């Protein structure tokens, strides 16, 4: 019975991770409130989930804000680009619906396909930003390449994001835990992809480098 509540025991470890999921979701919500910061907060969410919750490295608050600050400018610019293109596609789809007829139907199909591609690329951008050091254009190109090359995985990732979004819209209280929980589920698929593009450890490398993501 004593082992059940031991700090290193399975029950306490599980409860600790549940608390971390709630705590990280609240952090994400607070830092996303300005809307324009969603890119930086989502990058930090993924970083915190993988490094602290999955790999048990570091402290959640410290690691979250480390990533948030380091990727604030790039994450914000990328998010605004995504938001701009998404808004333009939405407005164009509305106009195509009003247009009607064959031409309107064709345009709707084109805009929906473009919106799907935008979603596919978007689900890779912030995990890539949390892991790699690249220029914004290179991040977009790399994310597009990964999305297309790993299309079956990409579709599942998009479904996780879209379902989580609608669940939060329908049941707002789920925002207190669903962002981190869905990100945790998301990460099991995403990490399989990202590890294919990580440089492998070689003999003679700096042993002090904290390459937790290769474990």
From TrEMBL:
<feature type="transmembrane region" description="Helical">
    <location>
        <begin position="21"/>
        <end position="49"/>
    </location>
</feature>
<dbReference type="InterPro" id="IPR006938">
    <property type="entry name" value="DUF624"/>
</dbReference>
<protein>
    <recommendedName>
        <fullName>DUF624 domain-containing protein</fullName>
    </recommendedName>
</protein>
<feature type="transmembrane region" description="Helical">
    <location>
        <begin position="173"/>
        <end position="190"/>
    </location>
</feature>
<keyword id="KW-0472">Membrane</keyword>
<feature type="transmembrane region" description="Helical">
    <location>
        <begin position="105"/>
        <end position="126"/>
    </location>
</feature>
<keyword id="KW-0812">Transmembrane</keyword>
<feature type="transmembrane region" description="Helical">
    <location>
        <begin position="147"/>
        <end position="167"/>
    </location>
</feature>
<keyword id="KW-1133">Transmembrane helix</keyword>
<dbReference type="Pfam" id="PF04854">
    <property type="entry name" value="DUF624"/>
</dbReference>
<feature type="transmembrane region" description="Helical">
    <location>
        <begin position="70"/>
        <end position="93"/>
    </location>
</feature>
